[in-house]
Design a protein that fits this description.
This protein has 283 residues and is of the alpha/beta class. Helix content is 47%, strand content 14%. It has one domain (6-233): TIM Barrel (Alpha-Beta Barrel), CATH 3.20.20. The protein has helices at residues 6-16, 28-41, 51-54, 59-69, 87-96, 110-126, 155-165, 188-197, 212-216, 230-246, 253-275, and strands spanning 20-24, 45-49, 77-84, 100-103, 131-135, 169-172, 202-204, 223-228. The chain has an eight-stranded parallel β-barrel with strand order 1-2-3-4-5-6-7-8, surrounded by nine helices. It is globular and about 60 Å long. The structure holds zinc ion (ZN). The site of zinc ion has 4 residues, from loops.
């Protein structure tokens, strides 16, 4: 089936009372592994890529992989730009056929973030593409060590930010962190305060490393999309490393990559079920 845009996918998630995992891809094998997982689970989900990973291939390349593969899949999916940092990132992704965009102005002061995000929203909405914006807290000076987990979204700014940017979903900081180097300290009470005032559904970044039960508990606070990157990347890298460790002369790259794809699919399937509080046996 054709890709859905993020608003359509969010509506489907709400209808089915599930949250959407948004898995970060890097290359063709990761992309197909993620699509395999959604199909095997029969549950909707998001394939996403950030500009840091696009540089390996290109927006057109990833969009082509997804669009060519779609005829073999029946499960609803969206293709999302993760952490678009510039309007050029946004334009390239929309033009390549992405069906959802994130504009990341979270490091900017409040007013600048609004104006920057609004420009991305105006461009994307003209093409019918929904936008995720981010409202975090400005971190301390670079020479201070400030944990990302301590920088939380101010609930008092949420309604104004969403209304003035026109964003369709909002990424929030509630003690979550990116990557596996820092330790998340999720504050569900803070999330509840944000959810009470947010006019739009919410997005969690840095899903790897957070207890699945904690993520599952976010659904009642209007959380709909959970970004997960590191867990899938580790599964891919470990599978390739294991193949080399098992046979230092391993040269069957096709088999190694097929095994890596299967390893990513397995993690992606279990994670999708677990964050939705569903049993993972057999997945
Ligand atoms: Zn992120």
């Amino acid at each position: 089936m054709p890709l859905l845009d993020m608003n359509e996918l969010v509506a489907m998630a709400h209808k089915n009372d599930v949250m959407l995992p948004a898995y970060n891809t890097t290359n063709m094998e990761m992309t197909l592994a993620i699509m395999d997982a959604f199909e095997a689970n029969g549950m909707p989900g998001v394939i996403q890529i950030a500009p840091t990973n696009v540089k390996l291939t290109g927006y057109d390349h990833i969009a082509d992989v997804v669009h060519r593969a779609l005829s073999g899949y029946t499960t609803p999916m969206a293709l999302h730009l993760d952490h678009g940092k510039t309007l050029d990132d946004v334009r390239q992704a929309v033009n390549a056929g992405f069906t959802s965009i994130m504009i990341d102005g979270a490091a900017l002061p409040f007013e600048e973030n609004i104006l920057f995000s609004r420009r991305a929203v105006d461009f994307c909405h003209a093409s019918g593409v929904p936008v995720e914006a981010e409202l975090g807290a400005i971190r301390g000076k670079e020479d201070d060590h400030v944990s990302e987990a301590d920088c939380k979204t101010d609930p008092d700014q949420v309604a104004e930010f969403v209304e003035r940017t026109g964003c369709d979903t909002l990424a929030v900081s509630i003690g979550n962190v990116h990557g596996l180097e820092d330790t998340p300290r999720i504050d569900l009470a803070h999330l509840a305060k944000i959810a009470a005032v947010s006019p739009c559904p919410l997005v969690l970044h840095g899903g790897s490393g957070i207890e699945y039960a904690t993520i599952a508990a976010m659904k009642q606070h209007n959380m709909v999309k959970i970004n997960i990157a590191s867990d899938l990347r580790r599964a891919f890298i470990k599978s390739v490393a294991d193949a080399q460790a098992a046979n230092p002369n391993e040269a069957n790259l096709a088999r190694v990559l097929m095994d890596a794809r299967a390893a990513v699919t397995a993690v992606a399937r279990r994670t999708q079920l677990a964050i939705n509080g569903m049993p993972c046996e057999g997945a």
